[in-house]
C-alpha cells in the first residue's frame, strides 16, 4: 500500500488504537505504564497526536519529569505511529534505529503532555518521523525529536 493511500484511509485512527490496546496485553511493562491515549490523526499533515499523563514515579529528584521518561514518551508516540505505518506497508515490526531529542522546558507532576508525531519521509526500509511534545495546560513546547525506524518485513 502506498503512503498516500495509508493517509487517505479513514481506518488509521482505529488501527493506532488497536496497536495501543496491544500494549495493555502486557501489564506492568513500560508501554503499559505510560498510559498513552490517542488524541487524533491528521491525514493531510501526516500526523498522529498522543496524550500522556505525568505521574509521581516519573519524577527526577528535582520534581521534574525525568529526561529518560521524556525520551520514552517520544519513542512510544513516534514508534506507535511508525509501527502502524509499517504494518500497512506489509511489515510486521518497526524498531527504533536512531532518535535525537532536544529538551526545551521542564514538565511537572500532574501536567499532561501531548506529543504530535509526524511522518517526514519513507524509504524502502526506513521511516523518518519528527515529534513535538507540548505541555497541554501551558501550551508550551517541552521537547522535540527526530527518529528513524526500520521496516522489518516477514
UniProtKB/TrEMBL annotation:
Domain Thioesterase: 64-138
Record bears the keyword Nucleotide-binding: no
One Pfam family in the UniProt entry: 4HBT
Molecular function, one GO term: fatty acyl-CoA hydrolase activity
Keyword list, A-Z: Hydrolase
NCBIfam families: unchar_dom_1 (TIGR00369)
Protein name in the entry: PaaI family thioesterase
Organism listed in the record: Aminipila luticellarii
Classification lineage: Bacteria, Bacillati, Bacillota, Clostridia, Peptostreptococcales
Amino acid at each position: 500500500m502506498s503512503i498516500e493511500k495509508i493517509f487517505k484511509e479513514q481506518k488509521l485512527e482505529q488501527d493506532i488504537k488497536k496497536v495501543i490496546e496491544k500494549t495493555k496485553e502486557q501489564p506492568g511493562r513500560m508501554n503499559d505504564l505510560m498510559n498513552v491515549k490517542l488524541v487524533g490523526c491528521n491525514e493531510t499533515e501526516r500526523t498522529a497526536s498522543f496524550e500522556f499523563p505525568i505521574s509521581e514515579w516519573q519524577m527526577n529528584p528535582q520534581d521534574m519529569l525525568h529526561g529518560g521518561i521524556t525520551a520514552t514518551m517520544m519513542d512510544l508516540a513516534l514508534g506507535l505511529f511508525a509501527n502502524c505505518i509499517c504494518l500497512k506497508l506489509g511489515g510486521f515490526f518497526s524498531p527504533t534505529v536512531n532518535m535525537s531529542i532536544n529538551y526545551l522546558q521542564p514538565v511537572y507532576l500532574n501536567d499532561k503532555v501531548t506529543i504530535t508525531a509526524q511522518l517526514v519521509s519513507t524509504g524502502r526500509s526506513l521511516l523518518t518521523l519528527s515529534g513535538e511534545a507540548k505541555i497541554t495546560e501551558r501550551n508550551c513546547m517541552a521537547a522535540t525529536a527526530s527518529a528513524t525506524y526500520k521496516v522489518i518485513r516477514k
